[in-house]
Design a protein that fits this description.
With 484 residues, the protein is α/β, with parallel strands linked by helices. Helices cover 38% and strands 20% of the residues. The protein has 2 domains: 6-130 and 324-483, Alpha-Beta Barrel (nicotinate phosphoribosyltransferase); 138-318, TIM Barrel (Alpha-Beta Barrel).
């Protein structure tokens, strides 16, 4: 979308580290990094992976232009031989990733990068930025559409997004998460997302009276007339005037779609408006609701019997509302030493910040009887699992909690995306991704998809990975004790 070089969209410390690797002649050493998050947003039961297509575009186009190098030279931080090295840099490594639309959980790699460490380090910031944002918005959209049930959701947050890029890619992510349409025309153009919208209050206010405004709109859109009815008084003015215009329009062979409510008590107003429309013989007319909605409000309105057929959700969807960042991190998990990859670990006093070492994959287990997801297991890449069970897994913290899996099918969540710098993954359309997300969410019991206090899905470590992690922690702690 933007006309700047995304390669330069990085934190300065990525470049200073890359120079450090260059200076010490270690830039070629292969490193493995995992991009993952530690906590689910909004206390949700899952996150929905999104943003891979844009991440692929970024990596594929990775290169520094002469203009970029001139700017970096002006900083006075880097010598010319390093800038020449950057000018020749292209991504030559491997990337595996979770397909967009996949339900994903804390500690599970969304992206795994295996590349010369200078390259792998450089791409951290933009990868995290792209994946964090779209995964967050796709997850929020999945919550919103879960609350909507079998009714339609339109995303229309562009005016409130944190900039045009966030609006565009937020619209894309919201569609992946289950929204039916967007108000964002550019998203419609680029991704084929259905675009929908009616008029604003300013349309009504720009005419001498509401009835005149409605007639003018119906004249402009005789085959798709949907009227915003709360500019002055919803039940005493807006709905009656809409009904009058609807009858006039349909008498001439036009098509009246319905009305939109944007304020007030939407439960009460929608029920009253539904009765008025039905009494007028307009049972086919839909009622669209908007006005600072989120999944909690929508759930409550439906519980109160609101007669709403379609929802327009803006600010609280496109911004992530009270959880505006996913918090995904990018950590080194293995490094080449003497020709082999050696596991690496970051240890923290905060247990959740202690990383899982080694080159890993995430295995998802599905019941062969029900097709439902049973559990996920983080395993080391070389591990082989019994194909149908039984397999006993255990909680990585409360190890006494165990579960024996039987009669299952397994799926590796990570798929090849780049091999030796060449893209080997064909990106599906957003329509295909949305359908895939719907199918994958269908593998999870409703308890995991509750908006409030969902059941916690099982994500365990294999015994080999658990042993590796705790051996490395013990060895590190022993080395600290000896040094003291």
């Amino acid at each position: 979308m933007s006309n700047y070089n995304l390669t330069m969209s990085t934190d300065l410390y990525q470049l200073t580290m890359v120079y450090g690797y260059f200076k010490t002649r270690t830039a070629h050493r292969v490193g493995v990094f995992d991009l993952f998050f530690r906590r689910l947003p909004w206390g949700n039961g899952y996150a929905l992976a999104a943003g891979l297509e844009q991440a692929i575009e970024y990596v594929r186009e990775l290169r520094f232009t002469e203009e970029d190098l001139a700017y970096l030279r002006s900083l006075g931080l880097f010598p010319d031989e390093f800038l020449e090295y950057l000018g020749d840099m292209r991504f030559t490594g491997d990337i595996d990733a979770v397909p967009e639309g996949t339900p994903i959980f804390p500690s599970e790699p969304l992206i795994r990068v295996k590349a010369p460490i200078a390259q792998a380090q450089l791409i951290e910031t933009s990868l995290a930025n792209i994946i964090n944002h779209q995964t967050l918005i796709a997850t929020k959209a999945a919550r919103v559409t879960e609350a909507a049930g079998d009714t339609e959701v339109m995303e229309f947050g562009l005016r409130r997004a944190q900039g045009p890029d966030a609006g565009l890619y937020g619209s894309r992510a919201a569609f992946i998460g289950g929204c039916n349409a967007t108000s964002n025309v550019l998203a419609g153009q680029l991704y084929g997302i259905p675009v929908k919208g009616t008029h604003a209050h300013s349309w009504v206010m720009s005419y001498p009276d509401e009835l005149t405004a409605f007639r003018a709109y119906a004249d402009a859109y005789p085959d798709a007339c949907l009227l915003l009815v709360d500019t002055y008084d919803t039940l005493r003015s807006g709905v009656p005037n809409a009904i009058q215009v609807a009858k006039e329009l349909e008498a001439k062979g036009g098509r009246f779609l319905g009305i939109r409510l944007d304020s007030g008590d939407l439960a009460y107003l929608s029920k009253m408006a539904r009765k008025m429309l039905d009494d007028a013989g307009l049972e086919h007319a839909i009622i669209v609701a908007s006005g600072d909605l989120d999944e909690g409000v929508m759930r409550d309105l439906r519980m109160q019997g609101a007669k709403i057929d379609s929802w327009g959700v803006g600010t609280k969807l496109i911004t992530g509302d009270n959880n505006p960042a996913l918090g995904g991190v990018y950590k080194l998990v293995a490094l080449e030493e003497n020709g082999r990859l050696v596991p690496k670990i970051k240890v923290s006093e905060n247990a959740e910040k202690t990383t899982n070492p080694g080159v890993k994959d995430t295995i998802r287990f599905y019941s062969r009887e029900t097709g439902k997801a049973l559990a996920d297991l983080l395993v080391l890449e070389h591990e082989e699992l019994p194909p149908y069970g039984p397999l006993t897994i255990f909680d990585p913290i409360d190890t006494w909690k165990k579960k024996t899996l039987r009669d299952y099918e397994i799926q590796s969540l990570l798929v090849p995306v780049f091999r030796e710098g060449r893209q080997v993954y064909d990106c599906p359309s957003v329509q295909e991704i949305q359908a895939y997300a719907r199918k994958e969410l269908g593998h999870f019991w409703p308890e995991y998809k509750r908006l409030m206090n969902p059941e916690e899905y099982i994500v365990d470590l294999s015994e080999e990975l658990w042993n590796l992690k705790h051996t490395m922690i013990r060895e590190l702690r022993a080395s600290y004790t000896e040094s003291d």
